[in-house]
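Q: I'm writing up a methods section and want to include an example of the input and output format. Could you take the sequence below and give the corresponding predicted structure tokens, formatted cleanly so I can copy it straight into the document?
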Amino acid sequence: MDAVVLMSWRESEWEEVIMQASGPFEVKLTPQPPAPGIEQASLGRMTIDKQFHGDLEANSLGEMLSAMGQVQGSAGYVAIERVTGAVHGKRGSFVLQHQGIMDRGVPQLSVTVVPDSGTDELTGLSGSMQIHIEQGKHSYVFDYTFS
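A: Here is the clean output for your methods example:
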């Protein structure tokens, strides 16, 4: 797919503001035992293994920590994953940081590129990713720029 480029008018000239990549992905979450010594914290821990397709052709590996609230439908998670592959043909890797909250069934999710984590052709990458799940199928929309 071609990159979607959003433009804006700045100081008498058109300037590239943000590019957008999208596509489906598969994810495998594998439960892990608690870290030694913190079993009583009752935290969930999982490894992440993703395969991105579409404008982002990549795989990622990472870890997730989660906790359930005392009320059904309330929980939180944090995760870090290193994505390795190509975004619109530019190769390299970068790190995504997740922060997710479910407040009595109402979700909030932030997935952001860790500053200065881009390598090779992805050096200077910044951005954020939206994750959509419809009928059990995962997809992403990745808004990004290069500094």
